Amino acid sequence: MFVRNEDFRSFIRYYPIISILIGIHILLFVLVNLFGMFSILRLGVGYNRAIELGEYWRLITPIFLHGGFAHVLFNSFSLYLFGPALEQMLGKAKFLIGYFGAGIIANIATFYLQDSNFSHVGASGAIFGLFGIYFYMAFYRKELIDQANSQLILMILGIGLVMTFISPNINILGHLFGFIGGAALAPILLISAKPFINRGIVRVRRTADSGEIRFKPNRWQRRKIRTGPSGGGKIIWGIFIGLVILGFIARYL
């Protein structure tokens, strides 16, 4: 569910919404930081005083903008890992409603609960909204997610919440209300959802059976006993460790 094994073309074909969102993240970051188009950042940042003056688009535009390389890398990587399953399960329209709905709820809460001089950027509130949907799914729609993936999501969510409170320059209210917004929208969004099907798995074609009986005398000696984690488990733990490392990079850069 969270192990990505699609190639670049397949990923874009299967998950166009996620691909477009990540592309926008990277494009805007490049335009601002490499081409000096700081007007994009000035017009899009979630600045509470400007919202008070009627610039309500700032409740949406911060979802697309990021302040630094580690910031855009962490959020884009999180979207790459955790977005595809929901895009397939919910469908494009419902996924967009959940993603931007949670992000806007997070930004509205930030506007009302922070002071007028507070400003922020980042897709973290929307991404925490995805975690909120998974959280609801893990407890109330268990037929949509297996136990291993439920445990992984809860573990990642726990790490994310800890990093939220210990990292500087983090919009804590945005993270919390993004998560709450996603969980609140989940009952409606998941009404007709179906379990995730991993389209990136390559199925091996079986050759026709010739009917001959084959026996290998040493088959039992060649059989290995597995005592460590499976390949899938190693990949999941690798993803987890990678996210933790990215979190610490974002903490100090």
TrEMBL record:
Gene3D superfamilies: Rhomboid-like (1.20.1540.10). Residues 54-190 form the Peptidase S54 rhomboid domain. Keywords: Hydrolase, Membrane, Protease, Transmembrane, Transmembrane helix. Pfam families: Rhomboid. GO terms for biological process: proteolysis. GO terms for molecular function: serine-type endopeptidase activity. InterPro entries: Peptidase_S54_rhomboid_dom, Rhomboid-like_sf, Rhomboid_protease_S54. It comes from the Bacteria. GO terms for cellular component: membrane. The chain crosses the membrane at residues 12-43, 63-83, 95-114, 120-140, 152-170, 176-197, 231-250. It is found in: Membrane. It is a multi-pass membrane protein. PANTHER family: PRESENILIN-ASSOCIATED RHOMBOID-LIKE PROTEIN, MITOCHONDRIAL, RHOMBOID PROTEASE. Belongs to the peptidase S54 family. This is Rhomboid family intramembrane serine protease.
